[in-house]
Amino acid sequence: MTEQFSFNTSPSSSLPLRTGLAWFLIFTTVALTLISSGNGTVPDNEESSPRSQNRNPPLQILITGKYIVGIHHLLGQNPVFRDNNKPPKQLLAQLLETHKKIEDRIMLTPIIAELSGVEEAIFELNRIAKNPGSAIFEQDVNLFLQLYQYGVSSLSQQQRQSIVENYGWIGRLALIHEFENSSPERKMVLQSAIRVVILLLSLIIGIMFSLCAGTVLLVLAVAFKIKGRLQSRFICPEIPRVLLLEAFAIYLTAYGALPLLIGWFFPRFRPGAIAISLLGVIVGAFWPKFRGLDWKSYRESIGWLRGRGFFREVGAGITGYIAGLPLLAIAAILVSFLSRYTEKTPSHPIVQELGGNPAVVTALFFLACVWAPIIEETFFRGAIFGYLRGRFKWVISSIVTSIIFAALHPQGLVAVPLLAMIGFNLCAIREWRNSLIASMSAHALNNGSVFLLIILLLR
After folding, report:
1. What is the CB neighbour count within 10 angstroms for residue 142?
2. Closest among 69, 77, 79 to 115, alpha carbons compared
3. What percentage of the chain exceeds 70 in pLDDT?
4. Are both 111 and 258 inside the same structural domain?
């Protein structure tokens, strides 16, 4: 095998240089990604925030707000809870405690009006009006004050449309505060909130069953591993592994670092950054082949294999994902504590686009549930994990791969524990099955479930 590649690879003396350059590009891309997501030197002030121009409610405020209003409406119809409607108000108090930015407080005033009355909403708006932070927020505060003090009829059609465009469902909730519960307009807005309550309660039940099943599978996997009945099918690449590291570095630089730098220094050339990203994927994916590696050896090293059959590998990927759910739950709890401590809520940038144009939503679905599982598994669980696995045990290789995987996602440092645990689970599936079909299936299941849930919650 060594003789086969001797004419395509550089002398062994150049390997440290090639390896060092590859790792330099990888760590540089990770650093640039963290800076761009607001975890480095980029200031997080209200004037420079993108939300100063786009006031669409953050996902947490929107979903929690719908849940609070839905519970309030359902409990209010029940004579037992009509006079003691504490749970929604307690949730609202927690929401106000964790969201102290001016734009967030403005968005919460329609929820306050719904639960505590118009007077409480006006009091909150007057408090915000003393220090609105910017002309945009001052304009919004005055608009809401006019709405709650003088009624919907005092607003022009353009002003009403502006509230809906900027605040979505929360804006529509503000506009129907004077309507009776029996009115079609109010029913339509409240039905969306009640749907979220039903969906979240169903989700809790589904998560409980999934965690029970995952716990059983995880315990069985550990027991079988101890007894030697669960064997790893991973085969360490018998090729110059530096090719895999270089392939990953090329992909990461072209797909991550270069588009960021172009966006920062040459904003007009951002469309060209997309072309560079796609070129980086192609060159990175086939770099070992370009370097003279035969196709069979390349597929085996990267994990592009049928394994024990396509459908069997898909089933294994789904099983492996469910088995990892208890670990994901622990990581999610940690993220929840970090979010409260840092007062930062992790969120993916594409979430704000999911309630818009259906064509855009369809494109995002393809990117999240098809493109990302194929490409990311090829490079993370294929290239970099394959490179590390040739030098270290699978646990160490999985940890390193997963940390890089998590840091490169735009949700921020707070979300790293959960993202890293997802990556670790995918690495374990790759180690178990060898074929990337299994980890791609698990990756698609993860993204698809989250994507579908968000779509349903935003409806």
Report:
1. 13
2. 69
3. 89
4. no
**Quick one: DSSP state of residue 58?**
P
Q: 3-17, 213-227, 253-267: which has the minimum mean pLDDT?
A: 3-17
Round to whole Å and give the CA distance between 340 and 94.
11
Q: Which of 181, 197, 213 is the last residue of a domain?
A: 197
Q: With contact defined as beta carbons under 8 Å apart, do 114 and 178 qualify?
A: no
What residue numbers bound the domain in which 125 lies? 53-197
- Indicate whether 399 belongs to any domain: yes
Alpha-carbon gap, residue 187 to 179, rounded angstroms: 9
Token pair recorded at residue 310: 């396509």
Structure tokens at 128: 């915000």
| CA-based radius of gyration for the chain | 26
Contacting residues for 320 by C-beta, under 8 A, at least 6 apart: 425, 428, 429, 432, 433, 438, 439, 442
What pLDDT is recorded for position 27? 94
Across 341-361, b (16+ Cβ under 10 Å) vs e yields: eeebbbbbebbbebbeeeeeb
Whether residue 1 is predicted with pLDDT greater than 70 in this model: the reply is: no
Same domain for 302 and 238 = yes
What is the distance in angstroms between the CA of the first residue and the CA of the last residue of the chain?
A: 57
Secondary structure E strands in 147-295: none
Residues 81 and 186 in one domain: yes
Domain tally, the chain: 2
Question: Residue 412 falls within a domain, yes or no?
Answer: yes
Q: Is 26 within the bounds of a domain?
A: no
Q: Residues 302, 235: contact at Cβ < 8 Å? A: no
307, part of any domain:
yes
